[in-house]
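hiii, so i know i said id send this last week but things got crazy w the move. better late than never?? heres the sequnce for the chain we talked about at the cafe, plus the structure i predicted for it. fair warning i was half asleep when i ran it
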Amino acid sequence: MSTPARWCSIPGGGTDPGVGVRIGIDGMLLWGKWTGIGRAIWEVAKRLSADPRGHDYVLYASRGFKRRRELAAPHFRVRRTWFSARNRTLRIFWEQLRLPRISAGEVDVLHAPAYVMPLISLAPVVVTVHDTIALHHPDLVRRASVSHMRRFLPKTLARAEIVLVPSDAVAKDLRKLAREFEREDKKRSRPAGASPLRIDLDDKLRVVPFGVGPEFAPLEDEPARAQARAALGLDKPYVLSVGRVEPKKNLRRVVEAFFAAAMAKRLPHDLVLVGPGTWRARRSLRKSIRALGMAERVKLLGYVPDDRMPSLYAAAEAVLFPSKVEGFGFPLLEAMASGTPCVISRDAALRELAGKAALSVAADDLVRLRGGLEKVLINRDAAMDLRAKGLARAREFSWERTVDLTLAAYVEARERHEAKRPKG
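okay and structure toks below
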């Protein structure tokens, strides 16, 4: 029977036991308009650049990384590649072949924060696996992502010194996936003398939840919300949904649930959809909106800069986030911190994150999605109860704690690696 994933901890109330650890962070996803994973990498890197605990860092970023000055510190360097990480093929080759060579001797620990690690690395590797969607729900992601995970994730889990996940839900899924990988490996023929794949996650799996910053805070009254709406160019109360335009975000159902509630209860609200997406995905969503006759009431804002998101959450009457599957759920956490009541799906990671601070319904149950949305928009007592519970729940998640737990993983990875080295 497997043991629960351990939470990393730093003894002594936040002072880690290691000194002078040299840490490399793969920041190749910090290009363009990053969302969830890029956001997590950036928030941790930003705080590590201001961290006084005596470690040195190098962030390996691509030519397209524009925010180097924000990380400037004597103990924090940024090394940029000659190419843009927009080119997926070049990025994968660089991460697998070039990164291990340039990091060798330069760092004591390498952090691969986006699912897979260089399969040959002299430094011990801490890897972050954000979810198992590509392999457990391949219909929800691109084929290239499925192929990439199938090729690299099994050996990543076997070879990484420490594996970080953002929730217990992902830890559970990852254990299941590890067993699947081992079963598949047993069925394959292998060269004589080759060792079978063994993935022992019990000893190295750590849960490190992400955080939410103080910029996400509630607006106290309707005049303040109205003023915020006006500053955002929105002239009506609105329901907000945040997420990339892709199948797992279930945006078609979001539009249908909003339409059903708005028509049944004559709601005055608009629906505001925030998030980037491919031209084809956005065109398909617009077609669904037009088919319902909702073009005037649904605002597709696309990608919204980070500095506008706190106001967008705080001024919303509700957040509708019925994703089919998640590994964590930044929109839910940020909405709770903003005092905005949420209706979410019954996805395990979202329910774990929300606790009792959101209404959860089946992702594809249109009737209950509509009912949940109507409840938080019409029943003031229910909305205020969720607001209070959400604010309390959000206070349990901070980026400072994320950094502490991540640093503990770096130190542990180095110590485990050193303990394996031959003595004498």
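btw DSSP finds 15 helices and 14 strands in the chain. thought thatd interest u
miss u guys!!
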